[in-house]
Amino acid sequence: MNQKNQKKGIKRRDFLKTSAAFAGTAMFMGMGTSKLFGATSLPEVSIENVTLNNGVKMPILGFGTYGLNGDVCQQSVADAISLGYRLIDTATVYRNEEFVGAGIKQSGIKREELFITSKVWVDDSGYEKAKIAFETSLKKLGTDYLDLYLIHRPRGDVKGSWKAMEELYKEGKIRAIGVSNFEPHQLDDLMASFDVTPAVNQIESHAFFQQNKAHAYMKPHKIQMEAWAPLAEGRNGLFTNETLAAIGKKYNKSNAQVSLRWHYQRGIIAIPRSSQTAHRMENLNIFDFELDQSEMQTIASLDLNKTQFPEWS
Ligand SMILES: NC(=O)c1ccc[n+]([C@@H]2O[C@H](COP(=O)([O-])OP(=O)(O)OC[C@H]3O[C@@H](n4cnc5c(N)ncnc54)[C@H](OP(=O)(O)O)[C@@H]3O)[C@@H](O)[C@H]2O)c1
């Protein structure tokens, strides 16, 4: 570590201690969880990057913003960034980009230190509409470029959207382009028709829907898998699941932390969302333990190979 980074590290560590103390206070005030899972001794957070197929580096753990809006969204994003999150995930259809933008501004962190993702919604699909949607997202987010722009769902005029996105990418307005909720045949179709291979496919993935087939398909094509709902939004009892709890007990980690560590060890980007500081800290505190092979296999055995969000299919 050079001297500059060392200094930065010390500053960050001091800040995290302060944040941890705040989380303790928040808990007494009834704002946090009842159990902090090591957050009072949160080590210096250093989130690894993965290198996308075009060389761009993307943090392997980020912050999701679906369902966050207004002041809660702004404060959550600002707080997440101050805790150490650098990847922030939003979308036109979340209708919160202006609050995400306000949170980013409030954080005071330089734009180039952040990795901002947004997504073009189905109603904006097609060449002309996607270009307008992109400019609107930029304005709302208060930025002049995006790190990653995704086609949110494989519906509507997908190829028109991709053509627009390829142009914006080649003009340098987007650092990487990708898709979301695409199945292998839909990826194939896109790759056969265009120059640029999607850098990322953001899909539902958690202990109960692991997406092993999709992952195995994407890997050799160098399409990075990113997990949405990495905690399954707690569905199917994820936060109280006894198998995850038994593994967590060994390391003094929560079911959320075991889940996020499992994503990390699989090399999959995860973007957990939380409206609570204590949970945001907890979800960052996954880099000081390692699941062994048999624990990874035990979690693999939880796969139901079925979406937990049938209403979105
Ligand atoms: N591309 C797509 O189609 C798509 C679809 C869905 C989501 N996404 C993206 O993926 C992100 C993550 O998915 P998600 O928000 O649906 O679900 P998620 O991150 O799996 O779960 C969020 C829920 O878990 C709770 N939670 C978070 N950390 C916790 C912890 N440590 N302990 C206990 N509860 C905890 C949160 O409650 P609290 O607020 O109380 O902490 C919230 O209710 C989204 O925010 C969005 O950015 C993309």
Helix-strand layout with pairing:
Blueprint: H1 3-28, E1 49-51, E2 57-59, E3 62-64, H2 70-83, E4 87-89, H3 97-107, E5 115-120, H4 127-141, E6 146-151, H5 158-170, E7 174-180, H6 184-193, E8 200-204, H7 212-218, E9 224-228, H8 242-251, H9 255-265, E10 269-270, H10 277-284, H11 293-300
Parallel strand pairs: 3-4, 4-5, 5-6, 6-7, 7-8, 8-9, 9-10
Antiparallel strand pairs: 1-2
Bound molecules: NADP nicotinamide-adenine-dinucleotide phosphate (NAP).
NADP nicotinamide-adenine-dinucleotide phosphate (NAP) binds at residues 64-66, 89, 152, 180-181, 202, 228-234, 239, 254, 256, 271-276, 279, 282-283.
Task: Give me the number of helical elements.
Answer: 11
State Rg.
Answer: 19 Å
Low-pLDDT runs: 1-36
Write out the distinct hetero groups bound to the structure.
NADP nicotinamide-adenine-dinucleotide phosphate
Number of strands: 10
